[in-house]
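Researcher: We plan to redesign the surface later, but first we want a full-length starting point. Tokens attached.
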């Protein structure tokens, strides 16, 4: 029994360490332009801030992002334009991006779900990782970019969600970026 515990305990510790390391390792941050791009996939709404979220429809971590997006919209539903771009590789059949995550995002009042064929919109806006959120002010200037979850697949308090809510309330944010946790939306399936 002692020999088994001697082997089992470090193995469990190693497994937990690897799981935590994966959960808290952010994806590649966006290289978002400080201004709304000249040729965007959607027209900029000029009378209110715009929140764009980029998601991989098959990334399990994105469920937490959609949940946090629902909370943000519920708290700030008036005066906010929201779109979620779902990565859709052209090598996949039509409808591949229309998963339950698509349905969940579409069910949030005022949120538009948009297929992002081969990540073209993600490239225009500089997003690389599922869960990337970009908040643009009425003036078209980037106010925030980053994730809105505290780690991979975990919902709850996060610096990204707090920053967006502060900015939407007209208050300064403690940060204008936050780590983003999720799958790649640039060429990966």
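Model: Full-length starting sequence:
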């Amino acid at each position: 029994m002692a020999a088994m515990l001697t082997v089992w305990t470090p193995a469990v510790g190693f497994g937990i360490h690897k799981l935590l390391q994966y959960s808290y390792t952010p994806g590649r941050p966006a290289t978002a332009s400080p201004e709304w791009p000249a040729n965007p996939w959607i027209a900029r709404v000029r009378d209110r801030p715009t929140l764009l979220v980029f998601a991989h429809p098959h990334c399990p971590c994105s469920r937490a992002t959609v949940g946090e997006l629902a909370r943000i919209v519920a708290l700030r539903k008036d005066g906010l334009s929201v779109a979620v771009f779902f990565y859709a590789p052209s090598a996949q059949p039509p409808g591949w991006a229309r998963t339950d995550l698509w349905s969940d995002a579409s069910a949030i009042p005022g949120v538009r779900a948009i297929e992002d064929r081969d990540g073209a919109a993600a490239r225009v806006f500089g997003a690389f990782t599922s869960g990337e959120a970009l908040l643009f002010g009425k003036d078209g200037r980037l106010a925030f970019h980053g994730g809105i979850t505290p780690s991979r697949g975990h919902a709850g308090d996060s610096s990204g969600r707090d920053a967006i809510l502060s900015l939407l309330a007209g208050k300064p944010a403690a940060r204008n970026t936050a780590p983003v946790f999720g799958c790649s939306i640039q060429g990966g399936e």
